[in-house]
Amino acid sequence: MENPLSICCKLCFKAFTTYQKLFVHERNKHSHNKTIPHFYSLPRPTSEQMSQYINSFIVLIKKKLGFSRHAIGKKRFSIETFPENIFVYLFKDEEKFKYSPAKHKYQCYFGGLTGENRLKQILHYDQWSFRQNPLTNTKGYVLLEDYENTYQVKFIWSQTVLLENNRKFTLGRMTCNFITDSGEFQEK
Fold first, then answer.
1. DSSP string, 10-78
2. Is-contact 180 142, C-beta < 8 A?
3. How far apart are CA 97 and CA 106, in angstroms?
4. How far is CA 44 from the centre of its chain?
5. What is the pTM of this model?
6. pLDDT tens digits for 56-103?
7. Strand, helix or coil at 133?
8. Domains and their CATH numbers in the chain
9. In whole angstroms, what is the distance from residue 154 CA to residue 178 CA?
10. Which of 67, 104, 164, 166 gives 138 a disulfide partner, CB atoms 3.0 to 4.6 angstroms apart?
11. What's the CA angle centered on 33, arms 27 and 36, to 5 degrees?
């Protein structure tokens, strides 16, 4: 007789007795999963919706870019009410996109100059990764590659659920992690 409390993997339908066992299974057997079992229930966003969230991302990343030594290093920002369908339609076709059904969490990475150029295409803006201060000839930028290393911009979408008074509240959050640097620039 099947255990009514079993938890099923949404990708291969194997049953588990705890979420922890499901998480371990998913990490070991489906670590690079791109399949979204509920994809067809996600409405296609309008171009206005996509543009609004792309613009939000550009504004927030530029706010993290500075011109001094205090402005360099690991940076992070979140958009607290980021719809799942926007995230999926922005990144689902990318090489480094993956989805965890057990955690209801998406991730997408962009690295190096290839990643920077791909984000230019997705965001429809060539200057998304830097800002300049013409008074001091300095530039703050997202560091994606230097002489020694390649770095990543990492996007994560996750869902938070609040259960209160027999009501379920859900919220989607997009988080972006990246590294910034600054330096001088030359006028052309």
1. TTT--EESSHHHHHHHHHHHSTT----TTGGGSPPPPHHHHHHHHHHHHHHHHHT--SSGGG-EEEEEE
2. yes
3. 7
4. 18
5. 0.84
6. 999 999 999 988 777 789 999 999 999 999 999 999 999 999 998 888
7. strand
8. 1-31 (3.30.160), 46-184 (no CATH)
9. 7
10. 67
11. 120
